[in-house]
Write a structure and sequence with these properties.
With about 800 residues, the chain is mainly α. Helix content is about 65%, strand content about 0%. Among the domains are: about 230 residues, Leucine-rich Repeat Variant, CATH 1.25.10; about 180 residues. About 20% of the residues have low confidence. Pfam families: SDA1_C, SDA1_HEAT. Required for 60S pre-ribosomal subunits export to the cytoplasm.
Amino acid sequence: MVLLAGVSPEPLSASGRSSEKLSLPSLQSKMKTDPEGYETELHLIHSQFNSALELFQQQAALNFSSITGVGADPTVAKDLSDRAMFLAHVTPFYPKQLAGFPSDLAAFLKSSARTLPSGLRFHVTQALILLVNRKIIDIKDTLSLFMELQTLGDRNLRKLAFSHVVHSIRRMNKNHKNEAKNRPLQNILFALLQQEDEARAKRSLITLCELHRRKVWFDDRTANAICMACFHSSSRIMIAALSFLLDYEKIENDDDDDSDASSSEDEMTQKPQVVISKEAVYKAHHKGTAASKKKKKAKLQRAIRSMKRQQRLSSETSTSSYYSPLNHLKDAQGFVEKLFSRLQTCNERFEVKMMMLKVIARTVGLHHLILLNFYPFLQRYVQPHQKDITNLLAAAVQACHDMVPPDAVEPLFKQIVNQFVHDRSRPEAIAVGLNVIREICLRMPLLMTEDLLQDLALYKKSHEKAVSAAARSLITLFREVCPSLLVKKDRGRPVDPKARPRAYGEVNVLSNVPDIELLEHEDEIDGSRDDENSDDAASISSDDGNENSDDEESQYSAEDGSEDEGIVDEEDDENDSIDENESDIGDDEEEDNDDEDKVETEEVEAEEDDDYEEVTDSSRPSDGAGDGGNVDKKSKASKRKLSDFEGQLIAADTSLRALKRLAEAKMSHTISDSTDGILSDEHFRRIKELKAKKEAKTALVQQGFKIPSSDQLSFKRVDPAKLEAHVRLRLSKEERLALVKAGREDRGQYQARTAVKQKKTGGLSNRQKEHKKVMPFAAKKAKAQRSRQEKGKKRQRSGKQFRGKKAWK
């Protein structure tokens, strides 16, 4: 019990109260209930605090404190801490009398924080935090003091000051971002971060990282300050900043099909864009044999999963849910060049160099920068026996994008192929090399040549599962990117047989609203238009000379097949159409044009033959007479046709092209009339729905995967674990037996299913409960009598059963 030392009974009796002994907590509660009645005690305790403070400062001046920081007179420190906490609690009730107390306390802690005993320093800090929480003193005036307290080496004090700074700034920005108060606080922490003192800079960096991670200071200034800490003179500060930038990004496993399958129903309800035609679902569940229905159901599930994955990636990029502090770099190119120059000249250990290398690669891929000296630097470390080779290769993959010249990456690419993929290399190295080649070609397909791809495709016959799977994934990629580089048997059934990778620097510039053509073919996608209209639309799109017409033609044919014939027939139709198209893959452009002209002339001839037959049929008399006249008319018509063939061909060609232009103008005119050139929210919503239906139909046909865009690849972080090959070695007989016995431990003893069913695990049966039921004596007697009567009747019936009439009577 702490007593009021130095309190004489005279002032207490003069105020009308008895001179009883009062403790500080009880006096504190009474002063909060009646502030005006205890002003005398307040002045008394305030004067005691000032005297204790002067006494302690005199002891410190006379060097009475020991080297360890423990004062020679502990009673003075105890009185000082108790009265400081007391005054901090009652300060809100006496704002005028204690107006100078907060500033005196902060000045005392700032001047003699290093010489104070740990207990006194902790209590004074708590008193100051109490004043800040009650908004008696501003956090702006005490932030530098609390940051200084974190560098004293006291663990409890450091934790207390750090949590107070973070929670105070969070509470200040709870309802809205208070920029007027955030700016001065940020300037204080930024100035501490730029100092040469390692302890202060480290505490400032930790505070900024925590506030940025909690999304309190989630702005460009804080992110740039953290990134600029990578250039601090202290290696510890640099490592802390690099580790924060690397650990901030979480690797998302997009290939987790099991989780997608388990939550498919929930995602279907949340995302109505996943649209599968009712006809395909009905055929998968009700038509065909059990095996064919099973295959159709599996195909539907694959299509749903692929569409969900693509929608998740697109939603992440559209809603900007992906975030990294590197996104806010004001001068990304200068940051990368400066960090790379430090990487080349530093003498840090290999782990630190790897961290710097990862940050450089991540920034290059994220901002599509060009750092040509980075790839030869990586080439020195590309060896199968190199430490952390998968992390190094993942960084090399992330540094590749479509804006980098292929000539700069080609030596690194050849180094990976020569060092990892050869016959004398281990299966793990071959699989890693093939996976890295696939990821690099996904970003820069121009690096691959035809001979190299065909050589790498031969590894699909390897007996090692990891190697064959990696080779097949490479083949699957080039079926979509450039099927002409593969051998014909490896091409499979590509969606676009004439697909080519874009040349270096080539950009698709949109001249219209994306996917606005879906509104033109809205009826075809919905399946509401009849067969004739769909055939006309397909013929119009097939006459187009652009490269995109092939995609549209295959799409329309796939849609018509899915609506008319079903999933299985549509695959057969695509096989036939693709076999016809595959013969023209290796031809030149001139030969392609010649073939197109031949096809057009054959179509014109066929149309003219049909017209001619219709004319002759209509001119034929109904009574069947005059056969000789019909023969003469046919010969004359054939002669006229042969003589005017060239003129008719030119006229038909011009008429077809005129019809095509007329149809396009009519379709564009209807859209312009309906929308007046302005698209509303309903149009964009309809475009989104039609795009989902189109993706659903193509996903049912497509066997490969959809190639992500360059922006999606830049956002996606490459996981080094996915590049590794998990080759499962062959187990011996003893190891296999050990695995079998280990699997039997948790399993119970074998029993037949009937024995398991008959084994009773619950309570008593109803018959057993009847026997134990408490009944009156009369009821028991009546029940026993009924049972005796029933037994007697049964006994009588057993001897007098009618067994049928004898035959001889």
